[in-house]
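Deliverable D4.2, example record:
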Amino acid sequence: MTIMKNLALITSIVLSGNLLAQDYRIANWYNDYEACMVQTYDDMNSDHVNICTPQLKARGMGGTMFVDYDQQSHVTLSGGWQGLMDAADDGMEMANHTQNHPDLTAMKNNAPGLISEISTFRDFLNTNITNQDCNTFAYPYGNGNLDWQVTDEIKKGHIGARDAGLPGTGSWGWSPNWLYEFGSNEDDYFQIPTIAEHFLKPKIQAEVDNLLQYGGLMTVMWHAIVASDHEQYLDDVLAACNGKVWHSNFQDAIKYHRERRVSVLNSKYENGTEWVLELTDTLNDVIFNHPLTIHLKYGDKIVLGVKQNGVTLSYETEGDEIVFNAVPDGGDIVVEKQFMVGENELSTKLIGEVFPNPTTGVLNINLVNVDHSVVKVYNNLGMIIKSVGLHSSIGILNIDELKPCLLYTSDASDGAVGVDLGGPRF
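Output generated by the structure prediction step:
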């Protein structure tokens, strides 16, 4: 019996260098949410931990609690430091609100005082809350955000700071356009505006519509809470957002936004079964480690899986893109794939001509601009079962005795093309 072996090109010449801008994009927000919203709680108290945390967790929402220590009893009533760590495990961020809640503008010329209130207290929080790093800050009374002496001290150990309304005014009811470009420079990340919850409640839908229109970051500031009131507010917010908004904590929102601004996806190389890429940024990898949502055009490839640093990633296909989450500088991204084209396209692809197709045994190979090539044939286990040297761009290979296999050619420039000689698809 004669077996007809159909040919299909499954890989391409090795690639390297930057991908073109049209070949990929990084989503504005994690998991393709259209905007981001953060519930923040100033002067952390036991109600924030004991009431707000379970209400937020039950709805899949994050939040940030800005801790000061002028009322130590609140830490005790929250279950001590372990209670705060339990809340951190439930998705809450514990962040810096100074030790004694001073007016930082009045301290701007007191360098030792600023260090004690800001940096030393941050270290104190990290010593006692060991399952999370303290990386963000909120200004007491909203004061100090325009004083370089204050912001310079905050920048030493934080990635962003939330204001108490309109920067420089402390106007809690101010309603900005929630622009995505809120962090166009370093200073901007230390003047993040907010709106107080009691100003937001009467106009939740209008403010959420504004947020979605501009695709930015909205932070909401809480102080005292009433359990039933807080719970109803969360339900109203979720209804208004309609699944389009990422309800993050403050730290993760700032990480994602800053990483996205400076991250680049490069193609390192491609062979018969893998497309290897790297996602890099210019930030401190110890701190900036939030996954970014990548849309990558995959062309004619049949994608079998995606991994980063050897770990399997979830992915989806959307049209001509694959979508997955990867961490900048988190290791090589490997797209496991096949590269399939139709029978009539073979002569226009990288090999040049491979004929006849289908074949009963003898394969004619006409390579394009490739001399002194080696033709290798692999079985399904990746073992070489036949290797033939070609001293010109034209060669003949008898494959009649072979089972379904992969033909692979390469040259001194490490270019590579492959042909699948029949067999099941997987």
